[in-house]
Amino acid sequence: MLYFFLSYAREDDDHFVQKLYHDLCNEVRLHAGVPRDQEVGFLDTRSIEVGATWSQRLTSAISTCRSFLALCSPRYFVSEPCGREWHLFADRLHQYETATGLRPPALIPVLWLPPRRMHPVAAAIQYHSDAFSDAYLHDGMRQLMRLQRNHDAYLESLSALASQIVETADTHDMPPCATEVPFDQLPSAFHQPTANSTPLRQLPTEPTAMGSQYVHFVVAAPTRAELPPTRTETSYYGDSPIDWMPYRPKLPVPIGEYARSVATKRSIDSRTVTLDDLSTCIELAMRHNQVVVLLVDAWATRVAQQRRTLAEYGEREEPLSEQNTAVMVPWSHDDAETARYGPELSDSLRAIFYKRVAGGEDVMYRSSILTHHAFDADLQAVLEVARNNVFVHGRVYRVPPGPLSERPILRLDPHDEGGPDHDRFT
Fold first, then answer.
1. What is the DSSP string of 253-294?
2. DSSP H helix total and E strand total for the chain
3. Cis omega (within 30 of 0) on the bond before 249?
4. What is the pTM of this model?
């Protein structure tokens, strides 16, 4: 029996994730009274044999496990694969509830690195319990594991999780479910339903009080099928531009997804779209005081249609001081092929974004970002500058006319006849 599936976002302290998985497996075995060598959990980095089809093993595990543990963090809720995993198990749970009228506590949000705002999908599930320590509820499981003084609280939380997992498995015999939908085509529970990118009709269309709290990440990158002949290293690309992972293997997640996790840390909502949606994103951003960040693969300048779109953008730029758009060029120093063609690719970028580079250093144009750590720091700086630009140069929305409320007036209480409270006001 597969007691639990552990769902987590890549780069969320993988070492601690694997330790949690190992410790939880041991604890579940003790609570369940099963042999030490029996497989009781599933973690994708440990449970898939070499050569196995990743998506098939993944969907099979989610379709047969008795509990689903989600390590909740800012990065988790912007990860589309994590959203697909959640959706698949939640749908199975819904089918069981419809058939039996019972809803087991099998979908368990685990506070890993507690986000400032829990995603509404997770917030609807009870994730607080008296069985967990105050330290866990405040700092999350990751912090309990990192600090020795929290070791007892970690063991208590681990035991509480294992107890809930085993009790759920013993009480609710959820049958396996079969899905014919490939994993990469499943909808994400945390995102708008879409094949590759969020349709723009679903993006915010009304002005908001804090427009700079919303950013459009536009990915300009080829698909694997669109790569020019000179680009022979295809492992950085996928079937959609949004699949581009310039910092793999050190950061094995798409750059748009990583950018959204950085924005989430600053409490900024975001979406990732492709270059086809650039013009509409810019229009929405100008209208509603939002921010656009263009994430450019230098190899996109070798793809005719993408080069034309980028060139049109380069020509239409407004005065730099009034812009709420930024250009960032991830360029991994581990990518030998990009380094080999570096001078030519750099010339192409300068030709397209000449307005950005002509006046000297522009904080809203970041080229040759060599590591994902540098990308994180640069993006945070870009978002701060963009928010300041919006504050100074953004569109002002006036409050529509309406009935004015009575202005509050300080007056003496007419019923007060003196005494120690004589100076009381209403």
1. S-HHHHHHHHHHHTT-EEEEEEGGGHHHHHHHHHHHT-EEEE
2. 15, 9
3. yes
4. 0.59
Looking from the CA of 65 toward its CB, the CA atoms found within 13 Å total: 28
**CA nearest neighbour of 326 among 371, 300, 276, 290:** 290
81's CB contacts (< 8 A; 6+ apart) are: 188
How far is 239 from 243, CA to CA, in rounded Å? 7
Is it the case that residue 316 has pLDDT exceeding 80? no
- For 87, the token pair is 């959706």
DSSP-assigned beta bridge partners for residue 272: 217
Tell me the residue length of the chain: 426
Beta-carbon contacts of 193 under 8 Å, excluding residues fewer than 6 positions away, are: 187
Query: Number of C-alpha atoms within 13 angstroms, CB side, residue 415?
Result: 1
Give the Å distances, CA to CA, from 217 to 103, 104, 136, 253, 291: 38, 38, 33, 15, 9
Question: Buried b / exposed e across 299-325, counting CB within 10 Å, b at 16+?
Answer: bbbbbeebbebbeebbeebeeeeebbb
> Per-residue pLDDT tens for 187-201?
888 876 544 433 333
Distance (Å) of CA 190 to CA 54, 155, 194, 310, 338: 22, 31, 11, 30, 34
- C-beta of residue 292 within 8 angstroms of C-beta of residue 286: no
Backbone angles phi, psi at 17, to 5 degrees: -60, -45
Residue 289: its pLDDT value, please?
85
Helical (H) or strand (E) element with 96: helix 80-100
Query: Which amino acid is present at 1?
Result: M
Phi-psi region of 30 (alpha: psi -120 to 50; beta: other; left: phi over 0): alpha
- Distance between CA atoms of 49 and 52, rounded to whole angstroms? 6
